[in-house]
Protein: PepSY-associated TM helix domain-containing protein
Organism: Steroidobacter gossypii
Amino acid sequence: MISQQKSRAFWLKHLHQWHWVSAAMCLVGMVLFSITGFTLNHASWIGAKPEVTTQAAEMPAPLVAQLRQLWEREGDEKAALPASVAEWLGESLSVRVDGRETEWSDEEIYVSLPRPGGDAWLTVNLQDGAVTHELTDRGWLSYFNDLHKGRNTGSAWSLFIDVFAFAALVFAVTGLLLLKMHAGNRPGTWPMVGLGLVLPLLLAILFIH
C-alpha cells in the first residue's frame, strides 16, 4: 500500500509539472489559434477592404547592367537577385528580396513577395531600370488568420507551430493521465471524455459529406 501511494505521488507530481509547463508554453498560442479558428470559420461575417500601395523607382544604371550581364551569361529563369541589387532595393523601397522566388525574361525580372495578411510583387525592367513594387494589405485580421494557417510565414513561424503542436500534445496527454488518476473520485470524468470523442465523430459522420 505504501509503495502504491509513493508511486501515485511520484506520477502526480511529475504529471502536474509537465502539465503546467506545457500549459504555460502553449497558452498564448492556444488563445491565438482559438480566436483565429473562430474568425476563419466565420470569414464571411467579417468584411475587409484590401489597401493597395504602389511604389516606383529607377535602378542605377550599373546595377541594371549587372542584371543584364547575369541574364545573358547564366540564362537562369529562377536565379536569385545579386546581393548588391537586393541591398539597393532594401534601402530604396524597404523591400526584402532575399530568398524570394524570381522569374527572369529578356524584358524584366518579376519577384513574388507573398506575405501574411496580403500579397506583394516587384518588377525590374531590364531595359530602362524602372522598378515597380505593389503591396496589397488585407488588414490585421487577415494577417492573424494567415498565421493560423502558416501561409507565407517563413521557416521560423513554421518551427514555432511545430513546437506549439508538441507542447499542446504534451498538455493534452498529461491532462488525460491526470484525469485517469483522479477519475475514481470524479464519476463524470469518462462520460465527459467520451462525449468529447463521440460528438465530433457523429458530426463528421452525419453532416460532412
Remarks:
- The chain has a mean pLDDT of 92.
